[in-house]
């Protein structure tokens, strides 16, 4: 589609939380800085406020207030509309988004704009009905809320971003950067995207299907009968573990143990064990220079081939490629 115009929606003009500044800065960096040696025509960037435009650019509380030159009416003729985030209260407490924003998003989509969300921006596209019947994602910390609140969406919490043609969604933080570079690749070609990524000192391309780096620790649960045995299991992942043994340690029948673990974690005992072992393998790959064979052994995944099989299936990359994303400390624990 070429470069075109990119309208970035600023949903909190006053006291933008510092955490959300990262998502806001990503499209500004990717689309807002001309690269004349890479493309004759670069993107036209607009910051469009969902609030009154006449605000001072000054520190306010724990965030910043922003002054923008554009408003929601400027979304109508944009080629691409990006919602980097929505206020935390809209995600955690269900505070309604401004009706004018939802109307503007629907109008932009109807006018042919490509709609994009980063992290919690998916809640705005969802409220506008633009994700109904589609596969979409967001930061894994918020995907459960997104799926519960908008059951018509096929929420995938295991990927970095989803490209559904005219509507694209991404997980949080660096996954938003991956999606923006993916848009450049679609619009201006792989060479331009690769050179831009090199200037930003980031990986040239991470496929959207690669898994988010999700924390697989013991889930919070009020079931005090489960917590000790789950902690014990995590401390003995390098050993053969069976459902019968875990049930015995929890003083439950295997059937009761299965039912209570499923209620507490939303998954089966065998699936839970696999997730914990993958989590241990990730930690070892991130923080040590142990051979892949040893990582498989200590995580309970067995041989290097078995570790590689599960990593490719569940994480989307090989153990070696995953390790390259986390430079190992020279003081790594062996």
TrEMBL record:
- SMART domains membership: HTH_ARAC
User: What are the protein's GO molecular function terms?
Assistant: DNA-binding transcription factor activity; sequence-specific DNA binding
Q: What PROSITE patterns is this protein classified in?
A: HTH_ARAC_FAMILY_1, HTH_ARAC_FAMILY_2
Keyword Transcription regulation included in the entry's annotation? yes
Please name the CDD domains in this protein's record.
GATase1_AraC_1
The protein's matches in SUPFAM superfamilies, at most eight in alphabetical order, are given as: Class I glutamine amidotransferase-like (SSF52317), Homeodomain-like (SSF46689)
Any keyword Endoplasmic reticulum? no
Instruction: Enumerate the Pfam families for this protein.
Output: DJ-1_PfpI, HTH_18
Domain HTH araC/xylS-type intervals: 227-325
Q: Which UniProt keywords apply?
A: DNA-binding, Transcription, Transcription regulation
Name of this protein: Helix-turn-helix domain-containing protein
**Source species, please?**
Streptomyces luteolifulvus
């Amino acid at each position: 589609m070429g470069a075109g115009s990119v309208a970035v929606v600023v949903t909190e003009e006053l006291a933008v939380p510092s955490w959300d500044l990262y998502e806001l800065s990503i499209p500004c960096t990717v689309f807002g800085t001309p690269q004349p040696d890479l493309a004759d025509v670069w993107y036209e960037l607009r910051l469009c406020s969902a609030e009154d435009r006449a605000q001072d650019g000054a520190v306010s509380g724990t965030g910043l207030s922003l002054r923008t030159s554009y408003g929601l009416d400027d979304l109508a003729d944009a080629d691409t509309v990006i919602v980097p985030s929505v206020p935390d209260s809209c995600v955690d407490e269900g505070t309604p988004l401004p009706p004018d924003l939802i109307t503007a998003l629907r109008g932009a989509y109807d006018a042919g704009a490509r709609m994009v969300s980063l992290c919690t921006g998916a809640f705005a596209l969802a409220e506008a009905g633009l994700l109904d019947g589609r596969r979409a994602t967001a930061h894994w910390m918020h995907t459960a809320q997104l799926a519960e609140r908008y059951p018509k969406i096929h929420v995938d919490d295991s990927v970095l971003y989803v490209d559904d043609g005219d509507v694209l969604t991404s997980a949080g933080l660096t996954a938003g950067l991956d999606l923006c570079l993916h848009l450049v690749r679609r619009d201006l070609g792989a060479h331009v995207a690769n050179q831009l990524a090199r200037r930003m000192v980031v990986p040239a391309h991470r496929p959207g299907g690669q898994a988010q780096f999700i924390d697989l620790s013991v889930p919070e649960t009020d079931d005090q009968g489960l917590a000790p045995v789950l902690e014990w299991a995590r401390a003995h992942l390098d050993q053969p573990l069976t459902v019968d043994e875990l049930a015995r340690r929890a003083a439950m029948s295997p059937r009761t143990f299965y039912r209570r673990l499923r209620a507490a974690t939303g998954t089966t005992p065998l699936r839970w064990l696999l997730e914990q072992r993958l989590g241990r393998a990730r930690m070892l790959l991130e923080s040590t220079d142990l051979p892949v064979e040893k990582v498989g052994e200590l995580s309970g995944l067995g041989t290097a081939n078995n570790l590689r099989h599960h990593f490719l299936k569940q994480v989307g990359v090989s153990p070696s490629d995953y390790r390259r994303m986390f430079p190992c400390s020279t003081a790594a624990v062996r």
